[in-house]
Structure to design on (1200 residues):
């Protein structure tokens, strides 16, 4: 069944509990019946419900649940439902076993070459030429004392095989722990996903996996539905089903037209209740997952065999219900289908490029080494000594060649930094684990590292910069402004009653105020915080909103226009006892006041509310409130006659001629830690911008409190409407040049729509004015923030206030919704970058030294001073262990004192290059001194020119030992990469580092003293050990000397590891689904891409011509009438769903303000960005690329 280790639930693929009659358990309906019901839509589904169950009430009755009170919390009943209908859980794909990972690690080319060479060496070492002829074969060690040694010739081959085996085990173990961590992370994300269900008449939040068939679930704006169900009560519900059907239009759901709700779809508007009818593998998502083979359930055991053809076709597009393994499958599926979200991460791009360059250099060096060794041997043996090639000597000669080959391969092994990917993985995995503690739940590993390069953060206001605990602090009612909450007797009783019912009924019934958790604490706010503030006002005025709600339950609401980002208001219609209607409305004050024609006075009489009264109200009431940082909300109502019946679809007419009851000022205090966090960001070179839907004065006041703007600075605070006016040309098209004039100074964007946020983020990212490409992080919590979160380099979703849609689109989830956690993410991101650089500095020093030593040693003495097995040990130290030690350095505040590195900055700075070359010079000097005059210094036998299979010499052992000890001390030097003097600073805060250095030292002692023949080591005495240690410690002193040399004077030093060039980034966009960029393949692809570009341009031009032609023939259509991009483009890949089609933006309904059909009306989210870049890099061919299902607005980056 796959490894369910991480999952808290088991999975029942069989269908136990079937009755003879075919009904399961004693429920009046079977899994198959429910399954076939869920495959229908619209009228067909309604007809089926009527035929089989007469109505949804009966269906509830058959499933033994109550539409009002839900299931009882009886564990036996819940367990029975799980037995009969399955669990809400999709079994994960089996993880790769350890052996599979070992097998994958063995596929490494260099290792395979080494294995083959070792096996040949092993085979040949058993061959002995006939007795007398050994001398004839040249310089092979012989003689009585060496006989044991000669027979031990096999040891070298065996030792190489053993060390290869160690490397493989370590690699496999790392991969295994990485996957385990990933699964742990995934299950943590799943456990965090909870859903509201009604049990025993109360609404409780339960983990998604615990939902069962028969549950009554409450659904609201922003939810990702976790199971299939039938709607039993709904208000203005609109669902984005693109993840299942590929259709981007939002589907309206209602009890009488289309009540079928499917798992994996997103609620884009409205609220309601649904009866859960299918969960886990029986839900539409589950069926598709099973088709994909993620739920490994055999076909015959599947409960629902008929999955629609269309479902199979779009199976690949499915946004999965979180499976317990989720991660890998989900990521792969997403990658296959969605337009690549971002270029390969900056760091990965630089590292891949660097690794390839180093690898090429290593290959050349190793090839030259082998050729020189072979030539030298051949010339020495056959030319100078004049020997003849005897057939019986062939194996011995071959043995020599194999030995040379092994040396060559070893040079290659040491030169290729295969530890790089490992270091990155370890560093990221370690950071991700630690970031959990800092309230950052990382969904995409590379986001962590990208965050270190961030140059701009576009943050929401509510809940991120503020506490998201709202309270009404000022109120204007009955012609009076109360600076505090008034006593109930200060307000006219009728007005008070009207206000109470307006708030109680016209707030979502899921919003409520609960008793405090602990005595003396603040009451708990559940649901929408703004609504909670209003409900708190009702309680503060000694009224009871719950009584009103009991009198008018949610089912009795006649019509609800739910809040969305275009309306910026919410209205509810009630039918009064006499048949007439009353509409209650609440919303942003300056928007709703424009729709008011009357206002309640002190004596509860409505009087006319003229334009100049509105202006006065704005000046006297709203602006002073906003300047105190308060959010202003207006509450109004309207009586509507029963005859003639109002046209409820014409919202503009219904919500007009209102009577204003009151305007309240809601305070949402700035979080105490935010100003300091923003100061840190600014010091670290990161610009913080606030993008909010609030009034401009409120936004400016909060921005000043946070420290985003400072008095006297040159900055810009504008509203979304003004922003749109400035960035669009006469035709209403967005121009990058115009955005470039605004964004550098922009600090506050108020009254902004989600489209504005996306436009701003895209504008900053695409900008080429700054010398570095900007790296933008965005925070968001609403469904409508999805596009901006996806577009940003790093998207942060709110863990508490965020909707499921926002979380799906994000890279990192802030589990405490706090801005200061973002600063911690920046710190961790920079730390990852620095850790990789530290590792590189260390690794490259070892590389340079080891390769040069092996190469020159081989050329001069026909033998590498460092033997194959020793090289592999060095490789293990510098790759695996060093990456562990240096990649787990904890971050410190000092990281925030420097500017971001930027995308094009090299990985290896000039300071690092100075360190690498400086230390290499020291190490090479020492090693060559030891190699050529070491025997004189220590008064020992020379190890040079030793015959084949000669015993290990003390001379070469000292070289090996000194080399390793120098690396160990240099590892301490590598802890600092910016030229700091104190390399021991904070060394004890990293226990992993200390234990690895000491552990390596201990193993080195064992290898030297007891390694013997396999490690080509001869035991050393105390004096020799002290000399080795002394020379090793010289590294630390030499490090100080290097630090004293000013970098800026070393003009000759070049940086290395630059970011990929722009055209490569383009390639990587397409190569995003590949884990590693294969350079050869990239060259091939470049041709394809140019071809694609050409084809695209032609297609684009044809489309433009067609568009013009059609508009010429059909009578040129005026741009005013285009209220949705659907008129512009019919390509499904490029459709932007404008969630409310023909509702002009509320800002525009006031004719004085701006004509309703103004040219830059920003309910046109049309981005006709025709600069070539946009066309080149983002328009993909044909329909092979499906729209990214999670975003309600598909790519805004297309072009006519």
């Amino acid at each position: 069944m796959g490894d369910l280790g991480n999952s808290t639930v088991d999975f029942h693929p069989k269908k136990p509990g079937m009755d003879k009659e075919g009904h399961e358990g004693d429920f009046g309906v079977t899994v198959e019946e429910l399954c076939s019901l869920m495959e229908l839509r619209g009228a067909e589904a309604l007809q089926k419900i009527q035929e089989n169950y007469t109505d949804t009430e009966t269906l509830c009755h058959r499933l033994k649940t109550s539409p009002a009170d839900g299931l009882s919390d009886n564990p036996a009943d819940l367990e029975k439902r799980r037995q009969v209908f399955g669990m809400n859980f999709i079994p994960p794909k089996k993880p790769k076993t350890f052996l599979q990972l070992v097998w994958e690690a063995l596929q490494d080319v260099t290792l395979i070459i080494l294995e083959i060479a070792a096996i040949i060496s092993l085979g040949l070492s058993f061959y002995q030429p006939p007795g007398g002829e050994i001398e004839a074969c040249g310089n092979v060690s012989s003689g009585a004392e060496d006989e044991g040694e000669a027979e031990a010739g096999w040891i070298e081959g065996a030792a190489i095989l053993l060390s290869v085996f160690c490397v493989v085990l370590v690699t496999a173990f790392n991969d295994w722990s990485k996957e385990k961590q990933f699964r742990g992370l995934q299950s943590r994300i799943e456990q965090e996903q909870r859903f509201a269900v009604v049990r025993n008449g109360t609404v409780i939040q339960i983990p998604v996996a615990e939902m069962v068939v028969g549950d009554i679930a409450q659904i609201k704006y922003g939810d990702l539905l976790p199971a299939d169900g039938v709607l039993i009560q709904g208000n203005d519900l609109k669902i984005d089903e693109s993840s299942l059907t590929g259709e981007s239009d939002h589907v309206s759901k209602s009890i009488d037209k289309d009540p079928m709700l499917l798992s994996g779809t997103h609620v884009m508007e409205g609220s309601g209740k649904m009866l859960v009818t299918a969960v886990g593998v029986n839900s539409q998502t589950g069926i598709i997952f099973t088709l994909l083979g993620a739920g490994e359930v055999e076909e015959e055991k599947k409960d629902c065999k008929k999955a629609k053809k269309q479902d199979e076709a779009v199976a690949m597009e499915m946004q999965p219900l979180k499976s317990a393994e989720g991660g890998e499958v989900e990521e792969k599926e997403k990658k296959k289908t969605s337009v690549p979200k971002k270029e390969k991460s900056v760091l990965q791009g630089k590292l891949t490029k660097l690794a390839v360059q180093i690898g090429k250099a290593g290959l050349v060096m190793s090839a030259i080494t082998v050729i020189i060794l072979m030539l030298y041997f051949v010339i020495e043996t056959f030319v100078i000594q004049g020997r003849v090639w005897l057939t019986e000597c062939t194996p011995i000669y071959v043995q020599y060649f194999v030995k040379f080959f092994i040396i060559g391969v070893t040079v290659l092994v040491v030169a290729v930094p295969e530890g790089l990917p490992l270091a990155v993985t370890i560093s990221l995995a370690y950071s991700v684990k630690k970031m959990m503690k800092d309230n950052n739940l990382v969904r995409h590993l590379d986001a962590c590292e990208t965050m270190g390069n961030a140059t701009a953060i576009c943050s929401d206001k509510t809940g991120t910069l503020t506490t998201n605990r709202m309270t009404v602090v000022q109120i204007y009612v009955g012609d009076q402004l109360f600076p505090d909450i008034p006593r109930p007797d200060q307000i006219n009783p009728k007005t008070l009653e009207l206000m109470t019912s307006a708030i109680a009924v016209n707030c979502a019934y899921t919003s409520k105020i609960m008793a405090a958790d602990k005595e003396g604490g603040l009451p708990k706010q559940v649901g929408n915080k703004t609504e909670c503030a209003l409900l708190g006002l009702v309680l503060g005025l000694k009224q009871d909103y719950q009584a009103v709600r009991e009198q008018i339950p949610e089912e009795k609401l006649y019509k609800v226009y739910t809040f969305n980002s275009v309306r910026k208001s919410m209205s509810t219609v009630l039918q009064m006892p006499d048949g007439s209607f009353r509409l209650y409305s609440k919303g942003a004050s300056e928007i709703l006041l424009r729709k008011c024609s009357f206002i309640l006075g002190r004596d509860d009489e409505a009087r006319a509310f003229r334009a100049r009264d509105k202006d006065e109200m704005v000046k006297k009431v709203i602006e002073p409130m906003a300047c105190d940082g308060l959010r202003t909300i207006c509450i109004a109502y309207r009586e509507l006659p029963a005859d003639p019946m109002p046209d409820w679809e014409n919202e503009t007419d219904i919500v007009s001629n209102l009577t204003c009851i009151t305007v309240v000022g809601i305070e949402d205090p700035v979080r105490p830690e935010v100003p300091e966090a923003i100061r840190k960001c600014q010091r670290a070179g990161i610009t913080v911008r606030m993008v909010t839907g609030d009034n401009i004065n409120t936004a400016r006041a909060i921005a000043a409190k946070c420290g985003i703007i400072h008095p006297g600075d040159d900055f810009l605070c504008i509203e979304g409407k003004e922003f749109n006016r400035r960035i669009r040309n006469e035709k209403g098209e967005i121009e990058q040049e115009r955005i470039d004039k605004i964004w550098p100074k922009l600090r506050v964007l108020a009254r902004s729509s989600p489209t504005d946020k996306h436009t701003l983020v895209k504008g900053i990212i695409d900008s080429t004015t700054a010398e570095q490409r900007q790296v933008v992080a965005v925070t968001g919590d609403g469904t409508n923030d999805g596009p901006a979160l996806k577009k940003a380099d790093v998207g942060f979703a709110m863990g508490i206030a965020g909707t499921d849609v926002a979380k799906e689109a994000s890279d990192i989830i802030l589990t405490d919704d706090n801005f200061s956690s973002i600063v911690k993410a920046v710190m961790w991101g920079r730390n990852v970058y620095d850790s990789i650089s530290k590792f590189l500095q260390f690794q490259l020093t070892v590389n340079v030294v080891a390769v040069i030593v092996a190469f020159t040693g081989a050329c001069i003495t026909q033998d590498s001073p460092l033997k194959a097995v020793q090289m592999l040990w060095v490789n293990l130290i510098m790759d695996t262990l060093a990456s562990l030690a240096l990649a787990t350095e904890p971050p410190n505040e000092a990281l925030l004192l420097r500017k971001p590195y930027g995308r094009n900055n090299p990985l290896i700075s000039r300071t690092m290059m100075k360190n690498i070359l400086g230390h290499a010079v020291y190490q090479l000097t020492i090693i060559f001194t030891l190699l050529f005059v070491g025997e004189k210094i220590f008064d020992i036998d020379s190890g040079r020119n030793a015959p084949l299979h000669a015993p290990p010499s003390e001379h070469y052992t000292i070289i090996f030992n000194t080399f390793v000890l120098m690396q160990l001390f240099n590892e301490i030097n590598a802890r600092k990469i910016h030229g700091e003097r104190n390399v021991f600073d904070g060394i004890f805060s990293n226990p992993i580092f200390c234990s690895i250095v000491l552990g390596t030292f201990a193993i080195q002692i064992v290898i030297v003293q007891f390694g013997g023949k396999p490690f080509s080591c001869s035991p050393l005495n105390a004096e020799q050990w002290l000399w080795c240690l002394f020379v090793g410690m010289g590294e630390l002193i030499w490090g100080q000397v290097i630090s004293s040399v000013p970098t800026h004077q070393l003009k000759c030093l070049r940086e290395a590891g630059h970011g990929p060039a722009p055209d490569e980034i383009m390639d990587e966009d397409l190569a995003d689904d590949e884990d590693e960029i294969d350079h050869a393949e990239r060259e091939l692809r470049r041709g394809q891409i140019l071809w694609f570009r050409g084809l695209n341009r032609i297609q684009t031009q044809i489309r433009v011509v067609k568009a013009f032609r059609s508009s010429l023939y059909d009578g040129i259509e005026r741009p005013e009438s285009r209220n949705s991009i659907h008129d512009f483009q019919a390509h499904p890949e490029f459709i932007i769903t404008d969630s409310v089609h023909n509702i002009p933006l509320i800002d525009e309904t006031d004719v004085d303000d701006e004509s309703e059909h103004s040219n830059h009306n920003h309910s046109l989210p049309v981005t006709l960005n025709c600069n070539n870049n946009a066309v080149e890099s983002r328009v993909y061919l044909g329909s092979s690329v499906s729209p990214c299902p999670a975003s309600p607005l598909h790519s805004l980056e297309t072009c006519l």
